[in-house]
């Protein structure tokens, strides 16, 4: 069996690379996709559509351009991993999880125990909650090889 896995969420650590490396080392047939993880490039995604005098409109245009990629890749995936880091509030990751829930798309959350309470509704709709990239790899191994 092969899978496409979309890796959503936090962009400040190497969790994506850890999961990809673990899946590769386990010999799993997985194609990984992700949002644009270059923060400046993501913020500027709509800049070519013309200048705006207010930050809201710059963010609005860029979020819509970024959503083309995000929606398409989530819809094409077999599974989504949604990572919530401890340092920043990832509202976009919560939105991606909600989008998955609305689509009936299976997703796994990845975060520490310290933020279980604020993510209780997000976790309630998830198929699993992991605290490490290694646990995500084990979920993938089971799903693809069981």
Automatic annotation (TrEMBL):
Source lineage: Bacteria, Pseudomonadati, Pseudomonadota, Gammaproteobacteria, Oceanospirillales
Name this polypeptide is given: YtoQ family protein
UniProt superkingdom: Bacteria
Organism of origin: Halomonas organivorans
């Amino acid at each position: 069996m092969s899978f496409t896995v979309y890796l959503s969420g936090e962009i400040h650590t190497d969790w994506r690379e850890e999961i990809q490396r673990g899946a590769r080392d386990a010999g799993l047939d997985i194609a990984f996709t992700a949002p644009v993880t270059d923060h400046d490039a993501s913020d500027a995604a709509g800049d070519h559509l013309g200048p705006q005098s207010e930050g809201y409109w710059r963010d609005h245009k860029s979020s819509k351009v970024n959503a083309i990629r995000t929606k398409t890749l989530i819809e094409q995936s077999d599974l989504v991993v949604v990572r919530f880091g401890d340092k920043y509030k990832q509202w976009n990751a919560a939105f991606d999880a909600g989008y998955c829930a609305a689509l009936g798309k299976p997703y796994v959350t990845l975060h520490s125990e310290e933020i279980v309470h604020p993510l209780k509704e997000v976790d309630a709709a998830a198929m699993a909650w992991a605290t490490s990239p290694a646990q995500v790899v084990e979920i993938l191994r089971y799903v693809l090889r069981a």
